[in-house]
Amino acid sequence: MGQVTEIRLNKQKNELKITFEDEMYYLLPAELLRVESPSAEVQGHSANQKITPAGKSKIKILSIEPIGNYAIAIKFDDGHDTGIFSWQYLKKLSIDKEILWKNYLSRIKSLKLSR
C-alpha cells in the first residue's frame, strides 16, 4: 500500500496532508478522520455495529503521535483518541474519500443527525 513519508496538519487544525512514498498526497478533513476512526467506538465489532458520530463539522486535531513505523494516533478536540490509523487505512481513506464522505452525509441525513 505504501509508506507515509510526510504528515502535515494545516494551521486551522482541521485537515491533514498525507504524502506517500510514491509522492502522491491527499488532503483528509478532520471531520472525515473522526467519523471514520478505526476505533471500536466508531466501527463497532462488526459492520452492522458502526456508529455515526454527530456534531463533528468543526472538529479539530489536537495532536498526532507516531505508532512505530506503520501508523499514527490522532487526538481530537472532543476527547476521542483511541483510533490507530495505519498507513494502509490512511491510504484507503484517501482513495475512497469521496465515497466515504457521500456515505457519511447520507447516514447523517437518514439518522436525522447534525454534522
The major beta sheet can be summarized as: 3 strands, antiparallel
| Class inferred from helices and paired strands | alpha+beta
- CATH architecture call: 2-Layer Sandwich
Number of helices: 4
Number of distinct beta strands: 6
The CA-CA distance between the termini, in Å, is 31 Å
Output mean pLDDT: 94
Q: Ranges with pLDDT <50 over ≥5 residues? A: none
The multimeric state of the shown protein is: single chain
What's the domain count? 1
Strand line-up of the largest beta sheet: 1-2-3
Which secondary structure elements does this structure contain, and how are they paired or packed?
Elements: E1 4-9, E2 15-20, E3 25-29, H1 30-35, H2 40-43, E4 61-67, E5 71-76, E6 84-86, H3 87-95, H4 97-110
Antiparallel strand pairs: 1-2, 2-3, 4-5, 5-6
Kindly describe this structure.
By secondary structure, the chain is an alpha+beta fold. The protein has one domain (4-110): 2-Layer Sandwich (NE0471 N-terminal domain-like), CATH 3.30.2020.30. The chain is 29% helix and 29% strand. It has helices at 30-35, 40-43, 87-95, 97-110; strands at residues 4-9, 15-20, 25-29, 61-67, 71-76, 84-86. The strands form 2 sheets. The protein has a 3-stranded antiparallel beta sheet. The protein has a 3-stranded antiparallel beta sheet with strand order 4-5-6. It is globular and about 40 Å long. The mean pLDDT is 94.
